[in-house]
Amino acid sequence: MFEYIGHLVRSSGCILRQNLSADVTPENVQKNWLKIIDMTSAKHLNSIQEATGELLGVVETMRSGISSNEVDYVVKNNYNFRDTILYALGVGATTQDPTDIRYLYENSDEFAVLPTFYVLYGPMGCMNSSIVQDAIPFTQINPTRILHGEQYLEVYKQLPTEATVETRFKIQDVLDKGKGAVVLIQHDTYNVANEEKLSSGQMSIFVIGAGGFKGKRTSTHTISTVDPPARNPDVTVTQKTNIDQAALYRLSGDLNPLHLDPNVAMMAGFERPILQGLCSLGFSTRHVLQTYAAGDPYLFKSIKVRFAKPVLPGQTLRTDMWRNNANRIYFQTSLVETDVSVITEFSANTI
């Protein structure tokens, strides 16, 4: 592509891979080089956004040609009671609360996995692969400009207390939000031992500065969030996070330096490292289960949240809850110190 006097000129080019999971090899580039540089049918474009829109169209075509059973990335993980206990501690579980003992003591008769343990595999897979970059191939993504916007998790089976699991990732859509792009990523986790599907999740990743390519703004794949009822909450639970909460939570696999390195946090626009959004989600989930399920994780069905504002380690979380019917709990999490909502428009479904 060439630019002159404010205009862009691009060759018709050549598609070097037939699907998003295929690799582009030097041999493939060499084989198609004459097509790549052929300017006899060059296109004149008015803006980089127009060029970007065409590239996304090609990506969408490749994605639509993939079977719904095919995936873009696969990540395998092993875990045991040490991992699930560490996660529970990372999201505020305490021996001072009797309903938390089942998450903290492997010899407990009710020893169990906190259901939101399985959201870990979403960001772990994204950080250890190029899936987000591959979804927006026209932009070099700066990791400090990536935000976790929304999260969905549904659990299908009683989660084993130790297992080898395989998480399969699929790029569902890329949306143009003007100031940024939203990448919808589905992540389904299976028990390798018997191929049972244990959970399904969806991450909404907001990439700052990657929008403006005249792409679609909505998607049929989006799992909607809901506003809480217009009345005072039925129940409120508060819990103070630890000043080292983010350092503890990251040991469960979320190694994003944004949550520990002051310099990275400053580059991302924060005064100091912030708490992981999924850590706050774990606190809220515990509060809902304590309040409406006597702490029983097997009554958990699904959850959908939107992360609205950052939390600093050491601040106090307040979970406001509403029950509208037998199986759906609405909740909203705010900071006690500032009364600012940090998790909004979300609900939890119980069995």
UniProtKB/TrEMBL annotation:
Report domain MaoC-like positions. 229-345
Q: Which organism is it from?
A: Pogonomyrmex barbatus
Which molecular-function annotations from GO does this UniProt entry contain? (3S)-3-hydroxyacyl-CoA dehydrogenase (NAD+) activity; 17-beta-hydroxysteroid dehydrogenase (NAD+) activity; 3-hydroxyacyl-CoA dehydratase activity
User: Which Gene3D superfamilies does the record cross-reference, listed alphabetically?
Assistant: 1.10.287.4290, Hotdog Thioesterase
What's the encoding gene here? LOC105432637
One GO process term, biological-process aspect = fatty acid beta-oxidation
This chain's protein is named: Peroxisomal multifunctional enzyme type 2-like isoform X3
Q: What domain of life? A: Eukaryota
Give the Peroxisomal multifunctional enzyme type 2-like N-terminal domain ranges.
78-209
Q: Which GO terms describe its cellular component?
A: peroxisome
